[in-house]
Write a structure and sequence with these properties.
Radius of gyration: 19 Å
Number of domains: 1
CATH class: Mainly Alpha
Strand content: under 5%
Number of helices: 7
Order of helices and strands: HHHHHHHEE
CATH topology: Four Helix Bundle (Hemerythrin (Met), subunit A)
Distance between the termini: 65 Å
Largest sheet: 2 strands, antiparallel
Strand order of the largest sheet: 1-2
CATH superfamily: Nucleotidyltransferases  domain 2
Structural class: mainly alpha
């Protein structure tokens, strides 16, 4: 493996770790921002899987499809067949638009975060490079009692994303036949 190839793989892993750390922080803050946290979980998984393929000499397809990337990885290492991405693909593109995706609950965000951590570990364990960039473990917030933070979020019902997936429920309310914010 050339130095430039190694640098490229590490760059993918660093981007994946940054996404994972972002997801962690978005879950832990008050109020939680779960839709964006799930987006970052998806991005972390996608980037880790692409780093794995590149490390194995395969140019990854330009896709956000986690299931497709897992299948490509499973052709090299069968362990990737055991990873269930659940609804991960729903958070690649659709979640960025208010009328396209259903908001996640805390449990789902935590499930996707766990999957992202597992994928990261699976990839790092199977590529032969020395990689020690771990924002999640070194994050001081992560050392606090996550259980306490997460229990408080659930109890308080904190999430910035509305539960409804109806676009109409997200649009400004009309006043005298005009939307709020329109000139009179």
């Amino acid at each position: 493996m050339t130095k430039s190839h190694l640098t490229f793989i590490k760059a993918w892993l660093i981007k994946a770790e940054n996404d994972l750390a972002s997801a962690e922080r978005l879950i832990e803050i008050q109020p939680s921002i779960l839709d964006t946290a799930c987006f970052h979980c998806q991005q972390s998984v996608e980037k880790n899987l692409k780093a794995f393929l590149i490390a194995k000499g395969i140019e990854p397809k330009r896709t956000h499809d986690i299931k497709e990337l897992l299948e490509a990885c499973a052709k090299i290492e069968p362990v990737f067949v055991t990873i269930n991405p659940k609804r991960m693909d729903d958070f690649s593109v659709d979640i960025r638009y208010p009328d396209q995706a259903e908001a996640p609950e805390l449990k789902e965000a935590l499930d996707l975060f766990g999957i992202a951590l597992a994928v990261k570990q699976t990839v790092v364990d199977r590529i032969s490079i020395d990689f020690k960039y771990d924002l999640v473990k070194s994050n001081p917030v992560a050392k606090q009692s996550k259980e306490k933070l997460l229990t408080k979020n659930v109890k308080d019902g904190n999430s910035l994303m509305p539960k409804s997936k109806s676009r109409e429920s997200l649009l400004p309310k009309k006043r005298n036949g005009k939307s709020k914010g329109q000139g009179s």
